[in-house]
Amino acid sequence: MNIKSGVFAASVALLAVAGCGKKEQASDKDLSGGPSFKMTYSVFFPPTHVQAKLAKEWAEEIKARSGGRLEITVFSGGALTKADQCYQGVVDGISDIGMSAFAYTRGRFPLLEGLDLPLGYPDGLSATRIVNDLTAKYVPAETKDVKILYVHAHGPGILASKRPVGRLEDMKGLKVRATGFCSKIVESLGGAPVSMPQGETYEALQKGVVDATFCPVETLKGWKQGEVITCVTDSKCVGYTTSFFVAMNRQK
Fold first, then answer.
1. Mind listing the pLDDT tens digit for each residue in 89-123?
2. What pLDDT, on a 0 to 100 scale, did the predictor assign at position 30?
3. Closest CA to 102 of 83, 126, 79, 122
4. What is the C-alpha to C-alpha distance for residues 121 and 240, in angstroms, rounded to an integer?
5. Which of 42, 144, 204, 222 could form a disulfide with 95 if both were Cys (CB 3.0 to 4.6 A apart)?
6. Do residues 3 and 50 lie in contact, with contact meaning Cβ atoms separated by under 8 Å?
7. Could you tell me the pTM of the whole model?
């Protein structure tokens, strides 16, 4: 399942909450007469990132299809909850809906973190299909305290650095930003992993806190990290992925 189909599936779930399931075939006029609901949506991606833009478009579509009865306010850039606090924020009701990566709370999702292993994912679509298949098959108990609306994953992680890394020897002592199991990949290659979410990586690269980062190539544009790195090493042969969730508070 790709991101668009995942968004649609989540839309259907939320519309059912608003009382306008497919069987009713209600008109916009009929929908506007019922009770209204307001919800908050925490997204750690910055407002300019395509993921944050899609979240906002999705919220607008939900509002339109519910006849204005279901209004979702999107807080992007970690304004409501930071990336590593997003999941617990949904559990606690700080936000009604949240989007982040499972890897940002290492150890909390032992099954789903397995997706971060260096399996050589060829592309984001394949990784997304795998995380959906895994989630559907095993229904992980580790996510039972929220309602998972959909999951997806990014493309193979590559090494983006401030200096050339052309040989394994060049990895020795290299400070590499990494999350989850990706930290173990860095250690195995001889580097020094530094754990941090994407939102802190630009400044860390700029100030020399880290020398490199493992990331999908789209991060160089979406998070503007291409401005502070000079080299990219194609490491797709050990390409990891990170799976993302969009979850809803169960009481809401």
1. 999 999 999 999 999 988 899 999 888 889 899 99
2. 56
3. 83
4. 6
5. 42
6. no
7. 0.82
